[in-house]
């Protein structure tokens, strides 16, 4: 950087030393450490494309007559919100590509967050001193699901309207307060005209503001604590081995941001997503079939589909069947996830800080639990498409459901046990830390020196 | 040198794609071309930067010390001392009153959130159907029993209230001899014309599918299945309560009318739903 520019700032802020330390800060290098970065870059792209869309979208349920260029809907009564999404898709120049990039980025964002969380879990990176960042990460995951669902509902099309209706039914199922909660959230009995503008405020203001704040905290804590690293080479608990922040790490991150944007641009331009003109505007008396939500809601949908018909009645209080799969199971899932670092520390009695990462085989119990949880969520997600699978395999949907009802209980336990067994086996067949890598260089005398 | 040429080529490709993007936009835009060119523009820059970092930046692995995060006991003590202030810790009455007043203020500020929605009241227990209201199709035409075709299902509403969500009703015709309705509903289905709420008792989706051969209504959302002949009791899926039945009769002009509201409150369950 130009010395005079740096000098100008340094005279006013005294930052030269801090800046140098920052530039020389060492970051360990491993491909799996880039997963969180991909999530971050998707978020950046979501904010950029979302800002563009906000300028054209109308959060308004008022009925208007569609008169745009899409012939099959001409003359139909649609909501102003749906009409504005049609305008973005067919009339605003570069509108469709922005909308599709935004939607794809949302799908990849949640996927990157989930895979990043898996990396943290299976390598034990949540252990002391990183429990705080794990908790922030769990909250960010929940907010990401919320941001995805609220955004998905904004076009006011038939498919997303069905999703909102199910959300209303889950909310109303909460004992004692359900009807009040549902009426407060939706502004009355479903369907209401006010819900679109509420979802809009959540989607473009409250949730992104919360997420930006938490992402900043997430990164600040990472910077302060220094990145964890895998054992091997010169890495120990009391050092950080890697490349300096500038220039290598910055180049790599900027490159990854651009490549993430590039992949999303290709997807947004070439792969159609959420064609709301095919679904048609929302109508509370019509439903399309088969209907699937975006992938990250699939496990909740699947839980609703698999849960047995069990309206529980206790002392005249009805607990409707959506309550357990819609509220209790996600509550337990996120609760266990958030508390896992503390649960594991309690079980192992380990209160030491850890900066060297585990390999999954090093801790068979944790790996088994993680694999079981993954299989559980995978099967629930599959169950969210039980009708699609029934068509695909040409069987009755009842058969698919019954098989999955058993599978969702049996297979996680089985998979967890197998993973545990494999981890133990791998442990005994290989040393727990990889051998030190040695680089040799030929010297002028013809011998070899260690590099 | 080869790496430098690769990077230069990537940057050049990116610049060309960006220019192309401008041209495409200027001549009217095209989603596929825009995505393609934007992908190349971003990808060229990205790959160029990554190749630059990998092939041209020769950075050696370095090591940085990682001092323990926890502070020394002395430092902790100094900080706790700084936190302690006699005029705060000694005045427990004031501290408690401060917390109490703050909590009251928080409650007062949260109350306006109740403006977000009405109290549920009776709205979940009632629909627009009342005795004598004619059943009309989606175009608002009243229906006679003979107009309801067997083997099909249609959606009907109370006259003058087409499209009202919680009154939507499925109308079907079955052989009256096959009907096994619950006790007390013997005259709810004149000439085998039977009406059920279209809102699923599980999660509120419109029960949109009909398997005519087995006389089953199927909700496409979560595959709850209901037996039309036996008062729409659930036979599969997560729904545990039958679809509420609309009592139907024929008025003096020969049109189908409701003889009251549904047999139970419609839609998804809630805690004080009468069993």
Q: How would you characterize the largest beta sheet of chain A?
A: 2 strands, antiparallel
The name of the CATH architecture of the domain at 135-258 in chain B is 3-layer Sandwich
Share of helix of chain A, binned:
55-70%
Proportion of residues in extended strands of chain B: 15-25%
* Average predicted local confidence, pLDDT of chain A: 93
Examine the coordinates and then state which fold CATH places here, giving the name of the CATH topology of the domain at 135-258 in chain B.
Rieske Iron-sulfur Protein
Q: In CATH, what is the class of chain A?
A: Mainly Alpha
Question: What's the quaternary structure here?
Answer: heterodimer
Secondary structure tally: strands of chain B: 12
Polypeptide structure, described:
The complex is a heterodimer of chains A (451) and B (275). Chain A has 451 residues and is mainly α. Chain A has a single domain (30-358), classed as Cytochrome Bc1 Complex, Chain C, CATH 1.20.810.10. Chain A has 16 helices and 10 strands. Chain A has helices at 3-13, 16-24, 35-54, 80-90, 95-122, 131-153, 158-172, 178-186, 195-225, 245-270, 276-279, 298-306, 323-348, 364-383, 386-393, 397-429, and strands spanning 26-27, 63-65, 77-79, 229-230, 239-244, 312-314, 317-319, 356-357, 440-442, 448-450. In chain A, β9 and β10 (448-450) form a beta hairpin. By secondary structure, chain B is α+β, with helices and mostly antiparallel strands. Among the domains of chain B are: 2-56; 135-258, Rieske [2Fe-2S] iron-sulphur domain (Rieske Iron-sulfur Protein). Chain B has helices at residues 2-26, 31-56, 73-83, 86-89, 92-110; strands at 62-65, 135-136, 153-158, 169-173, 193-197, 209-211, 216-218, 225-227, 233-236, 245-246, 248-250, 256-258. In chain B, α1 runs antiparallel to α2 (31-56). The longest helix of chain B has 26 residues, at 31-56. The radius of gyration of chain B is 35 Å and the shape is flat. The model of chain B has no long low-confidence stretch (mean pLDDT 93). Classes of the chains: A mainly alpha (451), B alpha+beta (275). Chains A and B meet through α5, α7, α8, β5 and α10 of A and α2 and β1 of B. β5 (239-244) of chain A pairs antiparallel with β1 of chain B.
